[in-house]
Design a protein that fits this description.
There is one protein chain. The protein is mainly β and 376 residues long. It has a single domain, classed as Methylamine Dehydrogenase, Chain H (7 Propeller). It contains no helices and 29 strands. The strands form 8 sheets. It has a 4-stranded antiparallel β-sheet with strand order 5-4-3-29, with no helix packed on it. A 4-stranded antiparallel β-sheet has the order 6-7-8-9, with no helix packed on it.
């Protein structure tokens, strides 16, 4: 289970991408892929954006970037599903119980390398209510579903990212209090590097905060993660997957202990790959972040006008309602964003006018995240 330590409480944490970019500009009949929870089940719904009807259901899993594969775990098997048809492409018997790492604070799975060639799954040894005493990971080569490496570590580690070449595995190591370290495991040498990946801006080794979601750069060389803190403002953590380097960029706002709307931050990558959009649907803040050289820099900030036409889409939440961050999906022209609130209402946001356009509701369960918008 992914966790971030906040005060005396343990909160479920997140990694890897909650949001995907689209391939074409949305119009009538475009398909929305939404992660949904109903009872004890979680699944992906494919919804027609014109009729708002559910066309099919898929297992909850992590998709490849081209959405030709959707990987899920059923019992003790890894299953590769075709998202376009729902057909099973292949399966891999794992022999033991594993899980896909969380990619978002709301529980959308992750674990894939940016190029989709590698998948990491995890399991833990837990005794009672204590933190896990040991952590176990499998590195799987997705073409052919072949296990390439077994990683066993003493202590509590969460998956953070895996490089495109399958040689570096980045992990979150939990220590005392609110602090944790970013570590990296050398898959070629089969060992945990003794060093800690630290922020090049301030030299800090330990980090603190809750990771809400993340997106990889277009070339897969960087992972950008959205973090919030209890008594400090949010920030974007930029992690190089080609070497142990990281940068942090502070965003406007306060901590979630004072303002529950801090939990609403989300990230989306522009189709061109040179920009990350950070948006908060509760506060109305949107930041355009340049990432051309890897290190993030704010190049433009805007405030979304909150009007009655939003129909209650944007609202504050109490700090106790942690985990209600909305998902944001960028359109291919980079001028608009699709966003989904915790209540399941979807809105189109114009970056040019900083206003919310058409909105509509999703149905069929409790929405978890909007994962994709695709042409029909």
């Amino acid at each position: 289970m992914n966790m971030r330590i906040s005060g005396a409480a343990l909160c479920i944490g997140i990694l890897v991408t909650a949001c995907g970019t689209t391939q074409t500009q949305a119009g009538s009949g475009d398909k929305l892929y939404a992660a949904v929870s109903a009872g004890h089940s979680q699944f992906v719904q494919v919804i027609d954006s014109r009729s708002h009807k559910v066309e099919r259901r898929l297992p909850m899993g992590v998709p490849s970037s081209d959405w030709k594969h959707l990987y899920s775990i059923v019992s003790t098997s890894l299953v590769d599903t075709d998202p376009q048809t729902g057909a099973t492409l292949s399966t891999l018997a794992l022999g033991h119980a594993y899980r896909l790492p969380d990619a978002t604070f709301t529980g959308v799975p992750g674990g894939l390398s940016p190029n989709g060639q590698w998948l990491v799954i995890e399991s833990y040894d837990v005794t009672g209510e204590d933190l896990p005493s040991s952590s176990h990971f499998l590195l799987i080569e997705t073409p052919g579903l072949k296990i390439k490496s077994w990683i066993d570590l003493a202590g509590f580690f969460n998956f953070d990212a895996v490089s495109n070449d399958g040689r570096r595995l980045y992990l979150i190591q939990f220590v005392s209090g609110k602090a944790y370290y970013v570590r990296w495991y050398d898959l070629a040498m089969g060992r945990l590097d003794p060093g800690v990946v630290f922020d090049k801006n301030d030299g800090a080794n330990a980090m603190s905060g809750l990771r809400l979601s993340g997106v990889a750069s277009a070339n897969g060389g960087w992972l950008y993660s959205m973090y919030v803190r209890d008594h400090a403002g949010p920030f974007i953590h930029a992690l190089s997957l080609e070497g142990p380097i990281a940068f942090c960029l502070d965003l406007p706002g306060s901590g979630y202990a004072e303002d529950g709307s801090a939990m609403q931050w989300s990230l989306a990558l522009s189709p061109g790959g040179s920009t990350v959009y950070a948006a908060n649907l509760a506060s109305g803040e949107v930041a355009k972040v340049g990432i051309a050289d890897g290190a993030p820099q704010i190049v433009h900030k805007a405030h979304i006008a909150l009007t009655t036409s939003t129909g209650g889409l944007i609202k504050n939440v109490e700090a106790k309602e942690l985990g209600a961050n909305a998902a944001v999906v960028s359109l291919d022209d980079g001028r608009n964003l699709y966003a989904m609130s915790e209540g399941g209402k979807v809105a189109e946001i114009s970056m040019g006018s900083a206003t919310v356009g058409a909105t509509f509701d999703l149905s069929g369960g409790q929405p978890v995240a909007l994962m994709r918008v695709a042409a029909s």
